[in-house]
Amino acid sequence: MDNRFASTLKVGLLLLVIFLSGCTTHNTLPSATLHPSNTENINSYKYLIGSGDVLNIFVWRNPEVSGSFVVRPDGMITTSLVEDIEVSGKTPTELARSIEKILATYLRDPIVTVTVENFVGPFSEQIRVIGEAAQPRAINYTQHMTLLDVMIQVGGLTEFADGNDAVLIRIESGTQNQYQVMIDQLLKDGEISANVDMLPGDIIIIPEAWF
């Protein structure tokens, strides 16, 4: 009788597991948000501070509150007077004026200068290259950077790449747009007219060729 009960219990548990497995729902995560860059054309570029940057903050006649500070992953820094100062996404000049307003509570007429010693910048300002690049990665944007400059930094294309079907994704006025870029013509044929200006936040997707 005990053996029959044990067998029945095992069958029941097995059926329960199968039932629960069939009822399991796989929720879909929301798509990642692509944060647009503030740079809309190559002539309006200004460097923005980001997590990992090393900032040199100089407060005139107040060396005790001056020094080097690393921007935390949450985009803030901690100073001797103020624990949390939001710095990510600001230009060095904008940050200097912001710190002057904060320090005015503690100091009389503070004059602040901010310089960046180690450049990382926010993700929204980086160019990302994925797919059949020799070294797919994120690249820190430099003023007047072109597609050719980017491809040199990622080591060109793999032997399996379909460079002329590559796509450049760019957010413009809140809209995500796609453009075809002719990387094979640029790199293999030396067609300089295929070179285009890059902007912060651009994403290049290089597909594999179908043989």
Order of helices and strands: HEEEEHEEEHEEHE
Helix content estimate: 10-25%
Helical segment count: 4
The CATH class designation of the largest domain is: Alpha Beta
- Main β-sheet, in a few words? 5 strands, mixed
Helix-strand makeup class: alpha+beta
Share of β-strand residues: 15-25%
Strand order of the largest sheet: 7-6-10-8-9
CATH fold-level label of the largest domain: Outer membrane lipoprotein wza fold like
- Low-confidence parts, pLDDT < 50 over ≥5 residues? none
Head-to-tail CA distance between termini: 67 Å
Number of domain units? 2
Q: Tell me the quaternary state.
A: single chain
Q: Count the E strands.
A: 10
Q: How many whole angstroms does the radius of gyration measure?
A: 26 Å
- CATH homology-level superfamily of the largest domain: Outer membrane lipoprotein wza domain like
Average residue pLDDT: 90
Assign an overall shape: elongated
CATH architecture of the largest domain: Roll
